Amino acid sequence: MKPVEQRLCFESQASRIERVREDTDPARPHEQSINKAAIQHATRREAPRRSAAKTWLQAIALTARLEAQPHRLFADIVEDWAQRQPGRPALLSDGQSFTYGELTDRINRYARWARHLGLQEGRTVCLLAPNRPDYLACWLGISSVGGTVALINTRLVGRSLAHCIDVAHADHLILAADCVDAFEGARPHLHRVPQCWSLGTGDRRDDLDAALAAFEPRPLSSAERGDVTIDERALLIYTSGTTGLPKAANVSHRRVLAWGGWFAGLTDASTDDRLYDCLPLHHAVGGVAAPCSMLCAGGSVAIAEKFSAGRFWRDIERFDCTVFQYIGELCRYLLKAPASEQETRHRLRLAVGNGLRRDIWETFANRFAIPQILEFYAATEGNFSLFNVDGKPGAIGRIPPVLAHRFPTSIVKVDADSGSPVRNEAGLCIACAPGETGEAVGRIGKANSDGRPFEGYTDPAETKKKILRDVFAMGDAWFRSGDLMMRDAQGYLHFIDRVGDTFRWKGENVATSEVSDAIADCPGVLDASTYGVAVSGTDGRAGMVALVVDPNFDFGILREHLSCRLPPYAIPAFVRLCPALDTTDTFRKKKQRLISEGFDPSVVGDPLFVRDPATGRYRSIDRAVYARIIEGAIRL
């Protein structure tokens, strides 16, 4: 039983979100019934937006004093809602659904199982399973008694998968039937094989479902929970690994609570909301920020196993969703899909996510009848985030001046070639003026001070690389985001590119994201990835793009399209036609292989082309043409 003061604090927090309705009859996961909540929510969709100030204040109110209850974890929030509305849907999916009461019972079984195995005091278990409601119950339960859960990417294979398991230093691994083959392929590369617990494999040995059934679902006492505080590690979440192997980022209980509270406040989440989540649950946004925002508010989360443009709008309607979580490439895929009746036949009031570029923002909102878009910027390991609560197309956020002390961020000048910060005569970094592009950094400090903690990675060396020292004062420390941004005259921040992706050509900085966005709008282009390649005898790197095209693609149309959209120096000098592009499971392009192979036809099996700067036409590259480029006989 929770102390009375904790209960009162929860009542106050919940009331800031929205009072729970007296009618808590659970709606069936796939019913389309018109009830009191639907009528209220339909009215709410047409209501005027909250002011930016109210949005910020609500988010701050939900996260302001986490340290006042240092032993209150996110599982406690779920349990409190379960006591108030045990029959209301919490997590929904095609194959499995939990009410709040069922979710709390499942969390408690996982917690007791973890205690039985000694998964406490920072010991780690790896979780390798696809998207499903039990995924959240698993890590919420194990982490509530002090264990750390490493959320493993289900798309990894071989050495990459083995690397992620190894760096977690886990004694146990929870393995779903869908992932057995991938794990067996990684097993020979493991330094140490953890004990495996099977979910749905049919293997009676170490059957996790059977093991969980042996434990009671009742809440744990304070003594059983142990001395677990919000500042201890709850999760390991891995970076995407677009360059090199993934890194395991430490995520504390404090950050889980902060992410859930922030997004609940920013999205104005309530018990009437249902969020559609088709992003990977092993990532910070899809697996923590999105579902925890709804669970924080007593709402529901509809979980799809993966994103499908063909099923997206059918699922939105079928689950009766009011909010969905996006990433930018997901929006592009939806825009490229054929029109359907279902794409506007919904009760959506909000789309929340990151990476929605300005060039498709309004087109996306208008075609799919989305009343509001909340764009944000965040990184799993980052110590700061940005939010565009005003809905300005193309901006990733704006920090109100009155809150600048709470969110100390800056943009510093960096050298385009080396990626290193530019320093003045005193050895300090130089802040960018409005309109200038530089790397975004966040001041590192203690919680609720003039900065935010940086929890780093399991690898201290990798942690050290992300800390920039002596930035604006000798001895200070700032987190390096690795992202290039620009602040406009109104104070809105805009994402430009990743440090290292932007390259210098003909004396100008070229942002690969800008070039890819322009090319993606060209008729016949299905996908594009832009990067810079070294050319002997020239300074900087020449632009190159790998394209996936349809049968109607035409180089003449591409030439005319790019001449209208890009300055001459930004138009790619080389084109590679690929059957498909390698991406992470959040659709980020993997470029390292493309960069290393360059435009050498003896290395690249795909068709290659070079642009004639005089005519703008692209011609095929064979070995003779390649030799002339290297010799400088063909000027770029």
Kindly describe this structure.
With 636 residues, the protein is an alpha/beta fold. The protein folds into 3 domains: 4-74 and 86-377, ANL, N-terminal domain (Rossmann fold, 3-Layer(aba) Sandwich); 399-498, Roll (Luciferase, domain 3), CATH 2.30.38; 503-631, 2-Layer Sandwich (GMP Synthetase, Chain A, domain 3). It has 20 helices and 26 strands. Strands 2-1-10-9-11-12-13-14 form an 8-stranded mixed β-sheet. A 6-stranded mixed β-sheet has the order 6-5-3-4-7-8. Strand 13 and strand 14 (386-388) form a beta hairpin. Helix 4 (74-84) packs antiparallel against helix 5 (100-117). The radius of gyration is 25 Å and the shape is globular. The protein starts with a helix and ends in a 5-residue tail after the last helix. Residues 1-45 have low confidence and may be disordered.
Q: Approximately how much beta-strand content do the residues carry? A: 15-25%
Going by helix content, strand content and strand pairing, the class is: alpha/beta
Fourth CATH level, the homologous superfamily of the largest domain: ANL, N-terminal domain
Could you say which overall geometry the principal axes of the C-alpha atoms support? globular
Class of the largest domain, according to the CATH hierarchy? Answer: Alpha Beta
Radius of gyration (Å)? 25 Å
As residue ranges, the low-confidence spans are 1-45
Question: How would you characterize the largest beta sheet?
Answer: 8 strands, mixed
Helix content: 25-40%
Secondary structure tally: strands: 26
CATH architecture of the largest domain: 3-Layer(aba) Sandwich
**What is the domain total for the residues?**
3
Please name the CATH topology of the largest domain.
Rossmann fold
